[in-house]
Amino acid sequence: MSFSRKDNLKRHMKKHGDHANHACSQCNMKFYRVDKLREHIRTHTREKKTYPCEHCDQVFPRMSNLLRHKRTDHSAPSSPRIAAAPRVRNSGWNALGVYSSHFMTPTPAGKWDLLLFLKEVRPQIHKMIVDELQQKNSIKWYCVSKIRFSRETPDGDVEYWTPYFSSKVVIELDTSMIGDHIEQAFEKIKESLDEFLKNGSGWV
């Protein structure tokens, strides 16, 4: 077997060594990961908590399974529009001068896929930068993606967290490099997201 990431290889290698040092106090089964032990311990409880789907008759033993089912089986069809019209916050003043913020809402399909969302909003971002440059000699801009994550807690519930992933600030003097700068901004966001997932302790 081969692995693209070192941490995946380390996790796999634990299965081959004597690393199963998390033992169940009720049946002495051993696990090499503490989250697997917690999952196993729930099988000893008399009343197992279940999570029914409100859209169909399926029932799941874990909230994470229910969330995955809802994303894959009950997600709304993709809208023909690219994305909702940008929502612009009232302009204001800061130390750098006038600023404005544009908010973009993903389509139903883009809501679950960052790469698809970035592809959807790319033309709009390009147009906004061009429009701004037609009114000003130069502009500074950057992109921020707000992404909601979830993970299952040891007792079977789900907790949420919504971090932000930002690109570097770009100074745009003309329209010749806008496409390249947008691509660089998106790459920075994706790199930050990959780093978060690598060290994110189970967030999905």
UniProtKB/TrEMBL annotation:
GO terms for molecular function: DNA-binding transcription factor activity, RNA polymerase II-specific; zinc ion binding. It comes from the Eukaryota. Pfam families: zf-C2H2. Residues 1-20 are annotated as: Disordered. It is found in: Nucleus. Keywords: Metal-binding, Nucleus, Repeat, Zinc, Zinc-finger. GO terms for cellular component: nucleus. Residues 22-49, 51-79 form the C2H2-type domain. The keyword Transferase does not apply. Signal peptide: none annotated. The keyword Ubl conjugation does not apply. Residues 8-17 have a biased composition (Basic residues). This is C2H2-type domain-containing protein.
